[in-house]
Write a structure and sequence with these properties.
The chain is α/β, with parallel strands linked by helices. The protein has three domains: 4-208, Thiamin diphosphate (ThDP)-binding fold, Pyr/PP domains (Rossmann fold), CATH 3.40.50; 217-376, TPP-binding domain (Rossmann fold), CATH 3.40.50; 386-574, Thiamin diphosphate (ThDP)-binding fold, Pyr/PP domains (Rossmann fold), CATH 3.40.50. The protein is built from 24 helices and 23 strands. A six-stranded parallel sheet has the order 5-4-6-7-9-8, sandwiched between helices. It has a six-stranded parallel sheet with strand order 14-13-12-15-16-17, sandwiched between helices. Strands 19-18-20-21-23-22 form a six-stranded parallel sheet, with helices on both faces. Helix 17 (418-425) links the parallel strand 18 and strand 19 (434-436). Residues 437-572 form the Thiamine pyrophosphate enzyme TPP-binding domain.
Length: 620
């Protein structure tokens, strides 16, 4: 007779996760690093009971907000290059609903995140229960169904036996390079506590491997033929290069064939800033150097990049007759905009493509021109980040930190003006040290994602720092994980750069001919008297060391103190809302502008925007 363990559904889920391992750099470690949790009536009696008994194996970090828990899990997964993940558990109702934005962020960024969320009673005997949404014509529909749009795997557990299939399927989704993304399990409150005789084999230790798909020989041959005939080739290195562990292969491929490399936002830190073939970041928040060669390239090899509009300049960054080759584990990404697809692992694909290319090298004049463009861009950045007789700016703060940080310190930024400024001005000191969240461009990720990254970093590099750049807008949206970092002794260095509101959107508002309205606090008609937040006092009230500085020189001294300290340190500096933006390096970006307006400035901006559309590449 088969041997079984009689466990509740909640206990079985946790025991299963406890026994799932992955080999990283020759060492077996749990693929699930633990979780983030806020308990409520929908998860504390059963899932809380199961987690209590495994606190060493699967540590549970108490969150302050479910959305920020999801962001922290995303930051953790990014640091571990998608090879490890954290779960988030939330109660039924608003607790779970708060995870929707974080799930969307993980989905857009192709990140593993497991959500174990409370659900209404499957028996419906006590309906309607606290926090239940009632749909009169469909009693099966609830808040948890909203996650179907923002996850890669979704299931509602209505019988204990279901998890024997559902858990492995969720895990397989999260570890699949082509389909990686968040997984959601709805756990009805009664079903969580129901017991079942689970087969012992279900809980046996299993060591997973990340699948590497070899590209099709025919697709490699087609790509090699196109690239081998190129007079002006270029490589776009995306985030998938790091997720595949193909950084060394990218470098070797570029060097062997003398092909210039540019980086997407997610692909920042694929190559050191000092590498002669690193021509800079591309796109709307890119560099003149990368965008200059992109306009002239006749063959473009995209590696591990989903070709987002900020990378492609809304598909105006390239010559319309340029040939695109997309090497990507995901078929969906490999075929975008009539690319020659090479569906497969980046590491294996680069090796195969390199072999097929033989001794091909790009023309010397082309590579030299690209390198010269990078020299000019470096000179611009050096002036842009330098302090002097001008208003405080994001770029100056970035320059100060870049000069003083350790090469292995991790930099985190997200929505607003800072992603553009970090992408354009940061000089990469070591591989994989930059996390600019721009897949979902999500305000609030910065501090929470930094906390998750720091938890991961403390496992491998405890003597290095996680440095967070955030604006005042994102800080006000989500700052409670300053408290989380203090509680859990996971030190962060947080720079709060205060420009008095949503300055980058005000900039876009002005650039499209509109007057400043409702973005900067000073321009809000419902604010009779603008009020300045004391960010230093606020951060200090959550247990952080905090100080306010007046200029980049003072910032440098404060940053040295933060590096020397042993707990979360918040540094506040005002920056100018109008002056000091990085003025060069921008590709065109499509935004919707009014075709009809009473404002002559708005009409002129619309006409100017539409006049530049002629370069836009057509395709699906």
């Amino acid at each position: 007779m088969p041997q079984t363990h009689r466990l509740t559904v909640a206990q079985a889920i946790i025991r299963y996760l406890q026994n799932q391992f992955i080999e990283i750099d020759g060492v077996e470690t749990r693929v699930c690093g633990g979780g983030f949790g806020i308990f409520g009536h929908g998860n504390v009696p059963c899932l809380g009971e199961a987690l209590y008994n495994v606190q060493e194996e699967l540590p549970l970090y108490r969150g302050q907000n479910e959305q920020s828990m999801g962001f922290a899990a995303a930051g953790y997964a990014k640091y571990h290059l998608r090879r490890r993940f954290m779960f988030c558990t939330a109660s039924a109702g608003p607790g779970t609903a708060n995870l929707l934005t974080a799930a969307a962020l993980a989905h857009a960024n192709r990140l593993p995140l497991l959500m174990l969320c409370g659900d209404t009673f499957i028996t419906r005997l006590p309906d309607p229960v606290l926090q239940q949404l009632e749909h009169f014509g469909n009693p099966t529909l609830g808040v948890n169904d909203a996650f179907k749009a923002v996850v890669r795997y979704w299931d509602r557990i209505t019988h204990p036996a279901q998890i024997i299939q559902s858990l492995p399927a969720a895990l397989a989704t999260m570890l699949d390079p082509a389909d990686c993304g968040p997984a959601f399990l709805g756990l009805p409150q009664d079903v969580q506590g129901w017991a079942y005789d689970y087969p012992v084999e279900f809980f046996q230790k299993k060591c997973h491997r990340i699948r590497r798909v070899s590209p099709d020989a025919g697709e490699v041959a087609d790509a090699a033929a196109a690239l081998g005939s190129a007079k002006r080739p270029m490589i776009i290195a995306g985030g998938g290069v790091q997720y595949s562990g193909a950084v060394a292969e990218l470098k070797a491929f570029a060097e062997a064939h003398r092909i210039p490399v540019v980086e997407s936002i997610a692909g920042r830190a694929n190559m050191l800033a000092s590498h002669e073939l690193n021509i800079g970041p591309i796109g709307v928040t890119g560099s003149d150097s990368a965008n200059t060669i992109a306009e002239q390239a006749d063959v473009i090899l995209s590696v591990g990049c989903r070709m987002q509009d900020f990378t492609t300049g809304s598909w105006t960054a390239f010559a319309r007759d340029a040939t695109l080759i997309s090497l990507n584990a995901a078929r969906h990404d490999a075929g975008k905009h009539m690319s020659l697809p090479v569906v497969g692992d980046a590491k294996l694909g680069l090796l195969a493509l390199g072999q097929a290319l033989g001794d091909y090298t790009a023309p010397v004049a082309w590579t030299d021109m690209a390198r010269d463009e990078r020299v000019k861009w470096d000179a611009y950045v050096a002036g842009n980040v330098a302090s002097g007789n001008r208003p405080n700016s994001y770029a100056q703060a970035i320059g100060v930190v870049n000069d003083l940080c350790d090469t292995r310190d991790r930099v985190v930024a997200a929505a607003g003006g800072l992603p553009a400024e970090v992408t354009a001005n940061w000089r990469t000191l070591d591989i994989g040290t930059v996390d600019v969240e721009f897949g979902f461009s999500c305000m609030g990720y910065e501090i929470a994602g930094g906390w998750g990254a720091r938890i991961a970093q403390a496992e491998k590099e405890p003597d290095r720092d996680t440095i967070v750049f955030t604006g005042d807008g994102s800080y006000l949206l989500m700052n409670s994980d300053i408290y989380s970092s203090v509680l859990t002794d996971r030190k962060l260095i947080i720079l709060v750069l205060d420009n008095g509101g949503f300055a980058v959107i005000n900039k876009l508002q002005n650039n499209t001919g509109n007057e400043s309205f409702n973005n900067l606090i000073a321009d809000c008609p419902t604010v009779p008297a603008p009020f300045a937040v004391d960010f230093e006092a606020h951060a200090a009230s959550m247990g952080a060391t905090a100080e306010t500085v007046a200029n980049p020189g003072e910032l440098a001294e404060a940053f040295k103190r933060a590096k020397a300290g042993d707990k979360t340190h918040v540094i506040v500096m005002k920056v100018d809302a109008y002056d000091g933006w990085t003025a060069q390096g921008h590709a065109w970006w499509e935004v919707g502008t009014p075709e009809v307006s009473e404002s002559a400035k708005v009409r002129a901006a619309h006409e100017a925007w539409e006049a530049t559309r002629s370069k836009q590449r057509k395709g699906v």
